[in-house]
Write a structure and sequence with these properties.
By secondary structure, the chain is α/β, with parallel strands linked by helices. It folds into two domains: 74 residues, Metallocarboxypeptidase-like (Alpha-Beta Plaits), CATH 3.30.70; 316 residues, Aminopeptidase, CATH 3.40.630. It contains 14 helices and 14 strands. An eight-stranded mixed beta sheet has the order 5-6-8-7-11-14-12-13, sandwiched between helices. Strand 5 and strand 6 form a beta hairpin. Helix 6 packs across helix 13. The radius of gyration is 22 Å and the shape is globular. The C terminus is likely disordered. It binds zinc ion. The site of zinc ion has 4 residues, from loops.
């Protein structure tokens, strides 16, 4: 009898509780206004020490609003703290579960690539199945590539699109933060456009480069955010005092310098050391193999509508900073044409927050990739991670417009120069403008 109860308990734990979806009934998302450094410090301390509160955006600049989610038992504590420190907060979402329920999730039908529609979110298995089918449908130009492995033993699956030898490379990273669900479908949409679009600019973009595209570089985390905890951000490595490393704080570039934690319970835990995680380590090997042939690196996050450049200082790898700013601003102009979506362009310190150890910084510092951007996709401070599925297609379309424009600007301004040679890049940019004027 005892062993039966034990067996039932085990079955319950493994099939029931552990795989059960966590519900966010009556969870509230607050939008908090700060006015000074002191208030910011209060929120920073809270983020560092009290893991009941989920910081959807970090308190890294007093002029920026912060979004924080609190459970029904904890929200009074949060409000009390805010009142004590004269901070004003509005509610941006009441009962988060209601918004989660509106996130349409569809199943992909095997061998029908058209069944991935751009108005729903798809599971990891479905995204991987779609990638397989895309490769099968376009065997002359598309190849399945494995970017690395994960803690739970999965593969980081991507696609290489190549129209022939001798091309420079573009690398696209999606889904490193699990809960940022708009990232993988946007990256999948770029794949779709590169392979199917009849628009001449899109076709030229596809032809002129070799593309290495990975919609979900944190597959363990993404799967967990689908099946268990919607707001999971990190990978799924198990520690004795917490689970998961923020993979975008684990790259070997200014590791643990800013915006990261040493506590495994924190959402911004940087890991036990640079490249302590198999995901970042294995993916970095794939990238190193591309090496100096990588012309552009793009990573897709959400949210905030920002285009971020790595580093906030003027050290060597930043030498083409002004060019990168100009090119980025113009591309965001192209992004806004279709729906009027406004993006802010700037470096990570100016625009968003200080955070180091990200993929973008590593490729800039170690691979000297000339053009490196981090997109923070839609929206601003409305739905946050719970972007309504009807915005997936518009996000994909406007983002593709900007990617094509980035390529156009790179060619126009001759940013094929190496990242370390600012003067040369400036001269080439000037020459580009002069030539365009006369031709
Ligand atoms: Zn992110």
């Amino acid at each position: 009898m005892k062993s039966l109860i034990y067996a039932l308990l085990l079955a319950y734990l493994s099939n029931g509780v552990l795989s059960e979806k966590f519900r966010y009934d009556n969870y509230t998302v607050f939008r908090i206004h700060m006015e000074n450094e002191e208030q910011m410090k209060v929120l920073k301390d809270l983020q560092d020490t009290d893991f009941r509160f989920d910081f959807w955006t970090p308190p890294e600049h007093p002029s920026k609003l912060v979004q924080v989610m609190a459970g029904p038992e904890d929200k009074d504590d949060l409000q009390k703290l805010l009142t004590e420190h004269n901070m004003i907060a509005e509610i941006s979402m009441n009962n988060v579960q209601e918004f989660i329920d509106k996130q349409t999730i569809k199943r992909y039908t095997r061998n029908e690539i058209g069944s991935m529609t751009w108005n729903a979110y798809y599971s990891l298995e479905d995204i991987y199945a779609w990638l397989d089918d895309v490769v099968a449908q376009y065997p002359d130009v598309a190849t399945k590539v494995i970017g690395g492995q994960t803690y739970e033993g999965r593969e980081i699956v991507g696609i290489k699109i190549s129209h022939g030898p001798g091309k420079k490379n573009i690398f696209i990273e999606g889904g490193i933060h699990a809960r940022e669900w708009i990232s993988p479908p946007t990256v999948c949409f770029i794949i779709h456009e590169l392979l199917t679009s009849p628009v001449p600019e899109n076709m030229a973009a596809a032809r002129d480069f070799d593309w290495h595209i990975f919609p979900v570089v944190n597959p363990d985390g993404y799967k967990f955010s689908f099946e268990s905890q919607r707001f999971w951000r990190k990978n799924r490595r198990v520690f004795s005092n917490g689970i998961g490393v923020d993979l975008n704080r684990n790259w070997n570039s200014n590791w643990l310098v800013h915006g990261a934690s040493t506590n495994p319970s924190s959402d911004i835990y940087a890991g036990t050391g640079p490249f302590s995680e198999i995901e970042t380590r294995s993916l970095s090997r794939y990238m190193r193999a591309i090496g100096d042939q990588m012309q552009m690196f793009l990573t897709f996050h959400s949210y905030g509508q920002m285009l971020l450049l790595p580093f906030g200082n003027t050290s060597e790898p930043l030498a083409n900073y002004n060019e990168a700013m100009n090119i980025g601003r113009r591309a965001m102009g192209a992004l806004s044409v279709r729906y009027g979506t406004e993006y802010v362009t700037g470096n990570i310190v100016e625009v968003l927050y200080e955070a180091t150890g990200g993929t973008d910084e590593w490729v800039k510092e170690h691979l000297h990739v000339p053009i490196v951007y981090c997109y923070e996709l839609r929206d601003q401070l409305q739905y946050g991670f719970l972007l309504p599925p009807e915005q997936i297609l518009p996000t994909g379309l406007e983002t593709m417009d900007s990617v094509v424009d980035l390529i156009h600007q790179m060619k126009r301004f001759g940013t094929m120069a190496s990242a370390g040679v600012a003067g040369k890049a400036s001269m080439m940019m000037l020459l580009g403008i002069v030539m365009e004027y006369f031709l």
